[in-house]
Design goal:
CATH superfamily of the largest domain: NAD(P)-binding Rossmann-like Domain
Strand order of the largest sheet: 3-2-1-4-5-6-7-8
EC number: 1.1.1.35
GO molecular function: (3S)-3-hydroxyacyl-CoA dehydrogenase (NAD+) activity; NAD+ binding
Largest sheet: 8 strands, mixed
Number of helices: 13
Strand content: 5-15%
Number of strands: 8
Order of helices and strands: EHEHHEHEHEHEEHEHHHHHH
CATH topology of the largest domain: Rossmann fold
Organism: Paraburkholderia pallida
Family: Belongs to the 3-hydroxyacyl-CoA dehydrogenase family.
CATH architecture of the largest domain: 3-Layer(aba) Sandwich
Number of domains: 2
Pfam family, one: 3HCDH
Distance between the termini: 41 Å
Length: about 300
C-alpha cells in the first residue's frame, strides 16, 4: 500500500457502517457509502453529521467535520460504490443468504484485487464464501461496537482466504487507525462475542440465583473489572495480580476457577500444558524481572482513570 490512501466502500448504512465511515474518513480515506434503501442513506447522513459534531465538541478531531464529510460519497448504485475500492466492507443485516447474494454481486462488480470483508458478528467466513468464485478474497473483519470509539477489529480468514488478502486487510485497517487482531480458527462469535457472552451468561445466572441485583452487578463491572480491563486484559490482570506471574496465579486459583466452571456444567480445567503455554507467551511480552515496574505502571494508569471519574 505504501503511502497511498485507499478508497473504502462500505455496504450498508446502519450504525456499524456509519461508525466505520468515521474511522476511515478520519484517516484520510475516500469513503463510498452504499445502501439499497435511499431512506437509510439519508438517515445515515444525519447520523454521521451528529457523530462528527460530537467528536468536534470533544476536541478529538484533527480536521473540521466538513473536511471529513467531503471525503464521503453516498450511493444507491453498487457498481459506483465499489469502483476502485481497495477494501469493500459489508455491513448489511445478519442474514447469511443476503450476504452471500451481495458477495456474488461483488465477485462481478468489485475490483479484482479488492478485499471483501464482512462485519458479521457470528457467521464464519467459510459459510460466507461457500460456492463463491472469489473465496480467496473473502474474510471477516468484525469491529468492536462502536468502532469510532473502540479501535479494535477481529480479522478472521477462512481456509480459502489468500494470506496476501488477509495481510492487505490488516494493513488497511491499521491505516484506518484500527488494531487488527488475528482469529486463527473459525469459531461462532469469534473472540469478542465469546468473551462478552461468557460474562453475560454468568451475569444472568447470578441474578437468577439471587446472588446480586442487576444494578450492583453492573457496578462491579463499571467500577472494578471494566476499569481494570481498560488498562490490562484478563491474562495480564492475572499475571500482575500475583507475584511470580500468571503461572503462580494459576497454581493458587486454578482449582477454584475449575469449581466455578463445574458449577455451571463447564469442564475446562487449566491443564499444566495450557498454563505453561500461556505463561510462555506472557513472558515473551513481559520478562519477570520487569514485573514490579509493570505493576506500578498499571496502578498509575488506574490512578489517571480515578482522576477522570
Amino acid at each position: 500500500m505504501g503511502s497511498v490512501t485507499p478508497t473504502i466502500a462500505i455496504l450498508g448504512a446502519g450504525s456499524i457502517g456509519v461508525s466505520l465511515c468515521i474511522v476511515f474518513a478520519r484517516a484520510g480515506c475516500q469513503v463510498r457509502m452504499w445502501d439499497v434503501d435511499g431512506a437509510a442513506l439519508s438517515r445515515a447522513q444525519r447520523e454521521l453529521d451528529a457523530k462528527l459534531a460530537q467528536l468536534a465538541r470533544a476536541n478529538t478531531l484533527s480536521e473540521l467535520p466538513g473536511t471529513l464529510l467531503a471525503r464521503v460519497t453516498w450511493h444507491e448504485s453498487l457498481e459506483d460504490a465499489v469502483k476502485g475500492a481497495a477494501l469493500v466492507q459489508e455491513c448489511i443485516p445478519e442474514q447469511l443468504e443476503l450476504k452471500q447474494r451481495l458477495l456474488a454481486d461483488l465477485a462481478v462488480l468489485a475490483p479484482a484485487d479488492a478485499v471483501l470483508a464482512s462485519s458479521t458478528s457470528a457467521i464464519t467466513p467459510s459459510a460466507l464464501a461457500e460456492g463463491s468464485a472469489v473465496a480467496g478474497r473473502i474474510l471477516v473483519g468484525h469491529p468492536a461496537n462502536p468502532p469510532w470509539l473502540l479501535p479494535v477489529i477481529e480479522v478472521v480468514p477462512s481456509v480459502h482466504t489468500n494470506p496476501a488478502c488477509t495481510q492487505r486487510a490488516c494493513a488497511i485497517y491499521r491505516q484506518g487507525g484500527l488494531t487488527p487482531v488475528m482469529v486463527r480458527q473459525e469459531v461462532e462469535g469469534f473472540v469478542f462475542n465469546r468473551l462478552q457472552g461468557a460474562v453475560l451468561r454468568e451475569a444472568y445466572c447470578l441474578v437468577r440465583d439471587g446472588v446480586i441485583s442487576v444494578a450492583d452487578l453492573d457496578a462491579i463491572v463499571t467500577l472494578g473489572l471494566g476499569r481494570r480491563w481498560g488498562v490490562v486484559g484478563p491474562f495480564e490482570t492475572a499475571d500482575l495480580n500475583t507475584r511470580g506471574g500468571i503461572a503462580s496465579h494459576a497454581k493458587k486459583m486454578g482449582a477454584a476457577y475449575a469449581r466455578m466452571g463445574a458449577e455451571r456444567g463447564q469442564h475446562d480445567p487449566w491443564t499444566d500444558e495450557l498454563v505453561e503455554e500461556v505463561s510462555r507467551q506472557r513472558r515473551e511480552i513481559l520478562e519477570i524481572g520487569d514485573w514490579e515496574a509493570r505493576v506500578q505502571w498499571r496502578d498509575e494508569q488506574l490512578l489517571k482513570q480515578a482522576g477522570r471519574s
